Each structure stands twice: as structure tokens, then as C-alpha cells.
Amino acid sequence: MDRRDFLRQMAMTAASAAVVGSVEAQRAIVPLGTSPRDGVTWNKAPCRFCGTGCHVQVGVRQGRIVGIQADPLAEVNKGHLCVKGYHVGLAPYGPDRLTRPLLRRNGEMVPISWDQALDVIADRIQQNPAGFALYGSGQWTIPEGYAGTKFVKGGLGTNNIEANARLCMSSAVTGFLATYGVDEPASCFDDLDRCDVMICWGNNPAEMHPVLFSRFLDRRSRGERTTLIDIGTRRTRTTGFADHYLEFKPHTDTAIALGIMALLVREGTYDRQFVERHCAFRAPEAQNPTLQGEAIDFETWKSRIAEYTPERVQEISGVPAREIRRLAELFGNRDLRIASFWCMGMNQHTAGTAINSLVHGVHLLSGHWGREGDGPSSLTGQPSACGTVREVGTLVHLLPGGLSVAKPEHRAAVERRWNLPEGRISDRIGPHTMEMFRRFCLPADQGGDIDTIWVQVTNPGQTIPNATEYFDRARELDGKFLIVSDAYPTLTTRAADLVLPSAMWVEKNGMFGNSERRTQQWFKMIDPPGEARDDCWQIIAVARKLFDRGHPGMRDAEGKFIFHTTDASGREVPIWDFRRYYDVNVDERLFDEYRGFSTAKHKNLAPYAEYVRARGLRWPVVETEGGAWQETRYRFVEGEDPFVPEGAGFQFYHSTSEDDRAQIWFHPYNPPPEVPDDAYPFWLCTGRVLEHWHSGTMTMRIPPLRRAMPQAYVEMHRDDARQLGIANGDLVRIESRRGHVDITAWIDGRGQPPRGSVFVPFFDERLRINLVTLHEYDPFSKQPDYKKCAVKIRRAPRGASA
Amino acid sequence: MPITGAVVVLPPSPVDRDAVLARLSTDARVTLGPEAQGRLAIVVETTTTREGQDLLFDVQSMTGVGAVLPVFHDFSDEHPSDDPLEE
């Protein structure tokens, strides 16, 4: 058998195992370790891309990734991958990796040494500590995010740390907090294998989470009877599999949820027993509304939702009244199991907190909650938006483990655990993402008090809405300084004053936390190119530079470096020296320190070593009497959640009403801040495509993916195009009150928006749609609305190019 | 020569399913594996990755196909760094 025969056999074994699905077949796949036949070493890692958290096995030979196979032992993907996932092994090998630190001098980027780069950052911080901010992402690994939080909050004594997850799932967070008093889904992906009805709320999992969607579709192939309901503003690939498609006018999903609840109450089909035992009712305060809201009784709540009759909802949303009745009938039938899933459609929404809370409310009111296949779940777009940003707390108002900057006892607890002097952690909540970039784009004498931003693992130059005002403007201002750590050149690195080359994915150790509370671990498998280095090391090295300069914040209460690390014999390891960084497993040290915070909100994590063995574990993970570590599938449910006592049935033990009840909210339907008018008559919606991940930094450098989807486009309705004299492939100008972009029209393409609406994906840096989008955000979550703004469309002027 | 292992989620309709099986079984680049519960294992061996990609997208777009799920990909002969970014 030659090597090709062997590879062919491996490919067939992997595919057969995925088809047959037996454990024996799965174990027949090449085990982790080195194959004597071809010298390829296989090791496990979560995929680098979305929040699904598929596990892959990465094949490495002679220091280079040569193969990827879906991990058949991973519960999330069960031996499957999507088109992005199976190309993930090519992500590190684009032709233009950043390999040296670069500093802008007289307009030119010139190579400098790492030590010079660290000095530049330390200078900027010492010049104006309060004006420095660290901006990361849901692609930060858990230890990276933890190091960033400790550096900023425990070291610099500010709270100026944010992450791009603010832009993608913070409304999901506020929805969970408002409803359950604690963040993150109570249910898990197992719902896909068990639900009778799957409802997608403004969500296109066929393209955005294809592996999860295939788990649901597989059941149809096996002859199981399932129903898919797609509630959306445009037809997508998901619609093609739907039994019912409910097209609503942008922003009116709140009315749909209210309409379902109003009917459940009117018809008496809500779950009275569940509600009376486990729920309370809330509404926003009339003045200065908060996430806590005000308690109202059932009758008051009922009277407020009563106006949302099916006919009234039809008037607001455009969804026929009969469809609202159909949804209410489904939710009124407790013999069914109904799973709701959503992602950016409900989150990137100026009423994002409201719609998230209302969908939880629909499930609670109807009692479709807490059984396998029967509950609400939000999905995330990034691999560790949950594990890093939400759990570690890399946001201006959070501390590790879900603790809060606003609470003195929480700050004191963190100071104790970090061994910091009392009062080191500031009580001043820093500026959230949109406010941070707004201030960065203002002169110092006009409120622009943020003068230095260090960006890691994200690309705000492409992804911040209204990018002219919230990103580009800073380039025109003296005294502003942008530092960017990335693996590849991006629109953000091109605007930077200092660029730092970063290691990516399996070029470093890492841990992610996916959308179902699953914490995952991997080891470094290949070296990064040139002088590229771990983001976590970069943070620690800057902290050490400040320590060496005498910065008091970089010392703990005993004068030790805040990232003080010792070897097995107790001697300090200089992990700030990259040559020594891997002398110890820094990830393990940071994770096991961070793990101490995880019990604060019952998000208990296991020791690092457990994650080395597992394909991820869903928290809370608790140690059993036998010494094994047990994960949790369903929170707040007796028999599943170890913190729910026997006999309770369900217990919402972080309840905001402090009586173990979940909150069913009333939020009225309110119109969006910008709607189409005579001057700007179209809705613009933005989003993603199957082939590319987020801003395309990695996937546009993977040739098969780039060829499959080489550039962005605008989807528009055939009748609108005809009326405007636009043909398929024509270049059109999309213009809002904020900016314009010229882009190719795709009529009757993959997605089909209704008349008066267009869609543009945001992956293509050459066609920067966020020059056009709106900066308005949800008042609670501060998450901007990328899904709707008003634009006008016309053929592009002569000479324009896409 | 890239080699890819994949799972095709076959159409529930017998007519559509037969059309997909006919398409795959007559393509010399495709080796059919076991079929169970509406899912078919295949191995695709093409001259270039692009050709393999086109084939999988082509199958994905056939009526009723639920999904084409790649599970194994050997790209030891591929060098994306040789591929210019602008085409």
C-alpha cells in the first residue's frame, strides 16, 4: 500500500464512520499520535472559526499541517465538518503573513525589534494610562483574555478592556441576565437531536452553523418527522428546508413574540403550573430603564400584551395573522418539543435585549423549557465569545467569572485572589466598544480621552459600523495611536501605527469556550512564521516591561510580578522572554488560576488536565464522589444541574427577584431609529456567507474558499432591479446617510430579499459595507444594529469599480 | 492530487435520491462507500482542490441534497502561499 492508498483508505474510513456512526467505527479512525505509515502526527483541536466548536484532528508532518479530519469522537460535530472547517488547516499558510513588528515612521511601516515594540507600547501607556484601551475578541483564547483582563484591571487599574463580542452577542447576554439573572444558555446542542419543531429566529444556520443544522437535517434523512419554521427578513438556504417561512418587516420580531404570548394567555394554553411555580413578571421602568426592570403582576403584564392581537401583529410585522395563530398553537401543545435558535438577527438589533427576553418569555410562558429539545438557545459567531469574553469577562463592566466591576464586594474578592492591594481595581466602568471608538475618533479637547487602542485578534477597521466616523476619523487626529496584533494584514493593520505579528490557532497553546458552555483545549502543533508570537505572551511582555520600569500596578501586594510563574522546583520562569515562554505551560497556569473564579456564578470548571483528555466539557463541571468530572447538559433542571436540589424540578438560582424564579418580560414594540423614506427607500441588511468567516482575514487567504466566493455582492429583488434598470452583474451604488460602496448586483442569488430590501455580506475588505451601516445600538447591551438601516440604490457612476 | 472524504445527506425523495446516486456513481473521481440512514460516504480524488471543491458544490446544489459534509482532507500537496490573493 503506498501513501495515496493509505490516504484514500483513511478518507473512506472517516466518511464511513460518520455515516455508520458506531463507536467501533469511529475508533477505527487514525488515533491521536504519530502514524508510522506516513510520519504524520495527529492531535485534536477545536476549529478556529465559528462558535459551534467542532473538533478537528490536525495532521502535522515535518512542522507543517498536511491534513484535517473531522473528529469522530467529538460530540459537537460527530465526525462532520463544514466547508470552512475542513480547510482550516490552510489558514496559517496565506502568502502574506505578518512576520515582524512594524512601526509607522514618516508614513512608512518600518521593521523594528520586539523589544523596541514593547518599549513603544509601554511609553504610550505611561504617557496616559487612562487613555489606553485594550480591544480584543471572541477569538482570544481563554488564557489570553484572562491575561488581558488581569493586565488592564489588576495591573493598570482601569477597566478599559473590551472585545468585539460586544458587536455580535451582547444582546444575548442581556437577554439571559434579564431573564435568568446569569449569562449563557441553559440548554445545549442536544436539542437539535431531540426537538420536534426547530424555530430559527432571524437566523440562517444552513450557512452560518452548517454542522449544527445538519444534525437536525440528518433526522429527516432517518425518517423522523420534524418541522422547521424560518422566521426571517429574507429567504436564505435555511428557508429552502423550512416547512413554514414567516417573512417579517425588519425590526418587528418583538411584535411576533408578543403576539404569541398574547394568544397563549387569551386561549388559556400557557403552562399555568410552570408559570405559577417558576416565573415572575417584569417590565422596563418608565424612567431610566434598567436590566433589572420593575416587578409587575401577571394581570398587569397580561393587560400590556393584550393589544398584540394576531391582526395587530400582522399590521406591524407583515406576518399573516394565521401564522401567528399557528405559532401560538404549536407553543400551546406541550406534547411537542420546540427548540428556538437565534444568532445575529436577534442580537444586532436596537431592540436586541427586548427580543431576546421576549423569546425566552415565549418558552417560559408555554412551559417549553428545560426538557431535551425543548428550550431557547442563542448561537455565537466566534469560537470563544462565550468562553473568553462572557466567562472570563473581557468587557468594561465585568470581572472574571461573571463578577461585576460595579459591586465593591466583587472587586475586593478579585483583589484578594490576585493578591493585589485593596482598591487596585477601579470602580469606574470604562467605555463600551462604540463609545471607546467614538472617543478615539474625537480630539482630546472634545471628549476624545482615549488616545491609544491596542487591538488583538480582530479587525474593527472592517467591522465597526459607520466606519468613517467610528474608525477612520482617528487617522486625521494628532496624538492618536493604534496598535494592532494580527496574523495577516487587514484594514485595521493598515491604519495602525504599530503592527505586531501574532501566532494563530495551533501555532500556540489554546482554549476556547463554545456556544453550549463547552470548554475546549489544544496544544501548540507548529511554529509560527518569522517573529510572530503568541498574543498572550505579548500582553505579559508589555506588563513585564512596565514592571521593569517600576510601574506599581505590575506588582502584587508582595511586590511580585502579577504574572509571576514558577517551575516545578519553585524557581521563577521568565515567561516574558519568548525563548522561555514554553518552558512551562502558561495556558495551564493561567487557566487553573482563572478556574478559581468560575464557582462564583456556578460556572464551575474542571482542572486543565481534564480538558486535555476531553473533547470539551460543558460547565458547570463538578467532581463526583468517585473523583470523575461530570459536565452539565441542562442548567436549572433537577437531575441535570448539580446545583438544583432534589424535589425542586427547576430552580433559577440566580434569579433577579431572588426567589428562584425566571422573569417573563413585557417590552413594547418600538420602531427602529432609522427607517426607509423617500430619500433612502431601501432596507439594508448585512451578514455572513457560508464560505467566509467574519472579515475574511483567514478564509480569503484559503484559495478554495476564495474561489468559491471571490467577492461580496448585493442581493436584491428582481422587480426592484428591473425598476432601477439594474441587471445581474451590474455595478450598483449603495448609499446611506453615512457613506457608500459600489458593488455587484446578484439577483435571484443565494439569498432572496423581498422588495424594498437588499443584503450585503461584510467579509470583503475591498467592498467595505460598514461605511454604510448605522452606529445606533441597543440601550442595554450597547450592541449596534447591523441588520437594518436606510439606503438608496442606483447604478454606479461610470468609472466606479467594485 | 487532493483526497477528500465526505458524507452526502441524500434527498428523502426516491427520485431525487436516485438522481444523486446516478450522478456520483458515473463520476470516475468519486468512490462510493457505505450508505446508511439516508447518508452516503464518498471519497473524491481530483487533480486540483478547485476541481474537488466544484464537484462538492455541484452535488450540494442537486435537488433535495441536505448537505455535503467533508470529513477528511489531505492537502499536503497544496501551498496557498503560492496562490496570489488577487485574481
Lay out the secondary structure.
The complex is a heterodimer of chains A (802) and B (87).
Chain A (H helix, E strand, L loop, with lengths): L2 H18 L2 H5 L5 E2 L6 E6 L8 E7 L2 E7 L31 E4 L2 E4 L2 H14 L4 E5 L5 H15 L4 E3 L6 H11 L16 E5 L3 H4 L1 H12 L5 E6 L11 E4 L5 H15 L4 H7 E5 L10 E3 L1 H8 L4 H8 L3 H11 L6 E5 L1 H4 L4 H15 L8 E4 L6 H9 L4 E2 L3 E2 L3 H10 L15 H8 L11 E5 L3 H4 L3 H4 L10 E6 L4 H4 L3 E4 L8 E4 L4 E5 L12 H14 L37 H9 L13 H6 L3 E2 L3 E2 L5 E2 L31 E4 L16 E6 L15 H6 L5 E3 L1 H7 L6 E5 L4 E8 L9 E5 L27 E7 L7
Parallel strand pairs in A: 7-8, 7-18, 9-10, 9-14, 10-11, 12-26, 14-15, 18-19, 19-20, 27-31, 28-30
Antiparallel strand pairs in A: 1-2, 2-3, 3-4, 5-6, 5-20, 12-13, 16-17, 21-22, 22-23, 24-25, 27-32, 28-31, 29-30, 29-32
Helix pairs in contact in A: 3-21, 4-15, 4-21, 4-22, 5-14, 8-11, 8-12, 8-14, 11-12
Chain B lengths: L2 E7 L4 H12 L4 E7 L2 E7 L3 H12 L6 E8 L13
Antiparallel strand pairs in B: 1-3, 1-4, 2-3
